[in-house]
């Protein structure tokens, strides 16, 4: 294996880890779910760091990384909803934002004639939102092992909901700017 494919291999590992994370959550094996999700989270940080540090960035990697993130997070959120740890309104909000981003990205590439070789990159707010969503999954699993006061869970839900809405709005703003700049050309 070529060293330049390490970031993509880490993203693929994160995709593969989605199944055992979901299964351990469904089976209420929270400690194992926590460990697996932490490993997946570490691969998320490592793949980007390695790609940037060693100039291994690629078009495939710019697609694989967010797909791996979305697959792991959405699967985890759906599972957390199914087992009664995540409210339906927050699941709906997260899902709606993700559908909007996928649709908007495809529309933006088609509508603005963006080059196929251009790397996809998340906005800063999206990176913050992803970090908060990962933290929420970890938080919901940890409190199954060590329960805390309900108010902290509500605060975390509202924080993630806020970052989800702001991140979605940020993407809409980016797309509007891109369309306007294309029309000026």
From TrEMBL:
InterPro entries: CDP-alcohol_PTase-I, CDP-OH_P_trans, CDP-OH_PTrfase_TM_dom, Phosphatidylglycerol_P_synth. Keywords: Lipid biosynthesis, Lipid metabolism, Membrane, Phospholipid biosynthesis, Phospholipid metabolism, Transferase, Transmembrane, Transmembrane helix. It is found in: Membrane. It is a multi-pass membrane protein. GO terms for cellular component: membrane; mitochondrion. It comes from hydrothermal vent metagenome. This is CDP-diacylglycerol--glycerol-3-phosphate 3-phosphatidyltransferase. The chain crosses the membrane at residues 6-26, 31-51, 71-96, 130-148, 154-176. One of its GO terms (molecular function) is CDP-diacylglycerol-glycerol-3-phosphate 3-phosphatidyltransferase activity.
